[in-house]
Design a protein that fits this description.
462 residues; alpha+beta; five-stranded antiparallel β-sheet; 9 strands; extended
Amino acid sequence: MAAGAGDGAEFAETWWGRAWLDALESTALDTARLARGREYAAGGHVGRITVAPGRISAPVTGSRPYPYRAELRLRPFPDAVWEAFLDGVAARPAHLAALLGRTLPRALAERQDEAGVRLLPGPGDLVPRCSCPDRGHPCKHAAALCFQAARLLDADPFVLLLMRGRDERELLDELSRRNATHSAHTERATRATLPAVPARAVLHAQRELPPLPPPLPVPEYPGRPPVLPSADDPAIDPAAVELLAADAAARARACLIAAQEGATGATHALSHSDTASSKHLGPRPSGAAPKHPGARPSGAAPNHPAVAPGEDTASPFPARSLWEDAVRLVAGAHPTSGLTASTRELYRGVAEATGRPVTDVARAVAAWRQGGAEGLSLLETTWDPPAGDFDRARSALSAADLPALRPRHNHLTDAGRGIQLRFGRDGRWYPYESDPGTEDWWPTGRADSDPVGALTPLLTTE
């Protein structure tokens, strides 16, 4: 790992980075050596850092022309401790999501402490070593390495886990396997038991047979497939398999509803599964987010997303263009994971396949999560609504003492504030947001049949 040149800023900005420094500083015998080591780290004297199980090392240049080899040792975990750690993380998806986001949850570290496993080093756990003649504990070179390593830990807590004995790829593969096993056990434990008819009663029945058991209720949302481990075969893409499995679950649910309620209900169900399973509208690429703090209020999508114009309402799977279907698939993949490496890869793949910029893909995914096919249609096209609800909306906003919005086609806009409502053919209002004066509009929040309800959340984020 390349150690960035220091600029005198704080070396530990996270709680786990500060705990790392405390482990060495609490047992230091000479504060002057610590201060000198901080100066060395801030001055860029620490070379390329090497991290391995049980140790972290780097060349550190001092007053002499050649560098010394400094090292910090930390005892790796035995296999039994790793088993307990991995089981604890796999049982709590929030902890795994935090680690993937390069964050070390405090609750995870505290829970390990309660189990007698100290994840972070404590006083005396870090053992400094250096090739210099100074016998201080630590010497200024080892202290400089400790300060610079705190920066690495701030950016990536997997550095600490590697020192404890497991690298990132090994950990994620094992956690994926355990997560899949845990999901299977949970599913078996919660699976409904079908009412049974004794075989003897069936054989002895003459004319009157017992009625068939009623069908099980359709789940509110489609199931999510387990996270698959990385495959050794480059021809197999686990992310693509997960995406197709999630889509198959949504389609299977739509077929069940079609069988119970008719084809029209299935169209409703498929659109619902496209949007309601997502808890937010999706990430924006870097540089595209509005400047308002908290500009993307979370919230489940509405329960009745509209069918886009031209869709066949008699089919649970209306025909879509390549672009629409690609956006639909991506919108249903990892709907709550934020802008991760896997979602970036999905966006890039769709952008290459459709010839559109990655920003357009992200914006379209957000629109689909806001309102399904109707949300995407409103993102890309305008229409002229007839007199009625659209005209009454301005009066309703005025009566609620909300800002006056300028009408154009099916849009009501205040460009100075960076807020906009788009009126859909389904009679609902879709909120949009932009940096003031840029006209770079993004779907934000949930659609609402009441224009006041759709606009109010936008004003609370200003």
